[in-house]
Amino acid sequence: MKLIAIKPIYHNSNVVVEQETFETNEQHGRELVAKGYAVEVQVNLPSSGLVPDGEENNLPEPEP
Questions:
Q1: How far apart are CA 15 and CA 19, in angstroms?
Q2: DSSP readout, 24-54?
Q3: DSSP-based three-state secondary structure for 47
């Protein structure tokens, strides 16, 4: 899970400072988010063709 630190965090023998991104496992990440120490990085996948529910896919159809 990729996170952005809100407060300094001691993680993997290093101090992660505010606004720094870091990775951790899912359980630890959810715990840090719940405690207010970090927020999850939102991943946008515009080039993948994946469209969120309720939105139209405006990508051109592949040619046969």
A1: 12
A2: --HHHHHHHHHHTSEEEPPPP-GGGT---TT
A3: helix
Output the pTM of the full model.
Answer: 0.64
The pLDDT tens digits of the residues spanning 11-61 come to 999 999 999 999 999 999 999 999 999 999 987 666 555 555 555 556 667
Q: Where are the domains of the chain?
A: 2-35
Cα gap 40→28, rounded to integer Å? 12
Q: What is the C-alpha to C-alpha distance for residues 3 and 30, in angstroms, rounded to an integer? A: 10
Q: Which amino acid is at 39?
A: V
**For residues 21 and 2, is the Cβ–Cβ distance under 8 A?**
yes
One-letter identity of residue 6:
I
Q: Are 16 and 5 in contact (CB under 8 A)?
A: yes
